Amino acid sequence: MDRRAYLRTAGAALAVGTAGCLDAFAGGLSDGDYDIGMSANAFLPDEYEVSVGETVVWGNNGSRGHTVTAYESALPEGADFFGTGDFESTQAARDAWKNSGAGNLPPGQIFTHTFETAGEHHYFCIPHESGGMTGTIVVRE
Fold first, then answer.
1. Comparing C-alpha atoms, which of 28, 27, 45, 49 is closest to residue 36?
2. Would the pLDDT of 10 be above 80?
3. Fewer CB in a 10 Å sphere around the end CB: N or C, the chain?
């Protein structure tokens, strides 16, 4: 057997043998369980569009904890603040994360929020904000 044929065969065997490991690593979530996934440093997709009254589901399909935290100052007028941990403001969420890790969404867990106000709703992950983990929900009438 030539080297390339061997590598193709070995690679296929490895993929079959480890296929179930990826689901366990992602906390058992599959793509159909959420609208927005969370990788090491990104929301996927980082922009998502819904209509007023629709619920968005974030799923932590990564290997470490994340938050979903609205940029309170960048929400449309009249929009409700949203975020993991049920805090009332961006600063309260930041303080709670800093003091105790509150608001953490562990791997395999989901967070939902229903958007009732049209406009762009910007949000971020507190521990990974400096790495660019931000997103936008565009809510249409």
1. 45
2. no
3. C
Query: Across residues 40-52, what is the average pLDDT?
Result: 97
Amino acid making up residue 32: G
Sheet-wide strand order for 47-51: 47-51, 134-140, 119-124, 69-70
Mind giving me the DSSP string for 7-31? HHHHHHHHHHHHHHHHHHHTTT--G
Structure-block tokens of residue 35: 């609208």
Q: Are 124 and 130 in contact (CB under 8 A)?
A: no
- The residues spanned by each domain of the chain are 22-140
* Lookup: tokens for 104: 């953490």
pLDDT band at 27 (very low <50, low <70, confident <90, very high): low
Tens-place pLDDT, residues 66-88: 999 999 999 999 999 999 999 99
pLDDT score at 29: 85
